[in-house]
Design a protein that fits this description.
Blueprint lengths: L3 E6 L14 E2 L2 E2 H9 L7 E6 L2 H7 L8 E5 L11 H8 L8 E4 L9 H10 L7 E7 L5 E11 H7 L8 E5 L11 H18 L1
Parallel strand pairs: 1-4, 1-6, 4-5, 7-9
Antiparallel strand pairs: 2-3, 6-8, 7-8
């Protein structure tokens, strides 16, 4: 029986926004927003956090009661500025079978919700194993990828040597307001504003 494994990459270095994966966003580290939503998704058999950051490893000990959460120590050679994401994901999924499915969840899209992960998994069909990739409608004619969720068959990941690749894929369209990918401080501040508005709305 195939397994569905979430991969959350969180390296220590970041040139544009130093330490961004552990930077506090509305009261908790950036990476926590992705972990907290992923544990709500029962379809994920395991959640693997791959990191070279000892602070993140220490923080993730708070999830030790959740047996599905596992920490993978990333070697230094896979935590450089020029390390392709593919190499990180391949290392974190090296023990998986070809029919297993990797779900890449990058911490830099913290507004992604559990329902976005579930809907992506719902679009995946093992009989027609196209990748499922999230994006948003930028205007009437244009869609853009947002990096929030990639559902990738392990066999395709290894054979194509690419996260997206040249093969056909299915796009799961998310709302634009949940599609911010944090790259600069301005993105971080915008996420803070949106999260505060969300909290007020939920009260």
């Amino acid at each position: 029986m195939s397994r569905t494994i979430a991969i959350i990459p969180a390296r220590k270095g970041s040139k544009r926004l130093p330490g961004k994966n552990k930077k506090e966003l509305c009261g908790k580290p950036l990476i926590a927003w992705t972990i907290d939503e992923s544990v709500k998704v029962k379809e994920l058999n395991e959640i693997r956090i791959t990191t070279d950051d000892l602070d993140i490893i220490d923080y993730c000990k708070s999830y030790k009661s959740i047996k599905r959460v596992r920490i993978i120590l990333r070697p230094d050679e896979l935590a450089q500025d020029d390390t392709p994401m593919l190499e990180t994901v391949l290392q974190a999924t090296s023990d998986l079978a070809p029919l297993d499915v990797a779900v890449l969840l990058q911490p830099t899209t913290p507004l992604r919700e559990a329902k976005d992960i579930r809907s992506s998994l719902g679009l995946y069909n093992p009989l027609i194993p196209f990748r499922v990739i999230t994006g948003y409608r930028d205007d009437f004619y244009t869609f853009k990828l947002n990096g929030a969720c990639y559902v990738i068959p392990v066999r395709a990941l290894r054979s194509s040597k690419a996260i997206v690749g040249d093969e056909p894929f299915i796009m799961n369209v998310m709302p634009k307001e949940r599609s911010i990918d944090i790259d600069h401080l301005e993105d971080f501040k915008k996420c803070e504003e949106l999260l505060k508005k969300r909290e007020i709305k939920d009260v």
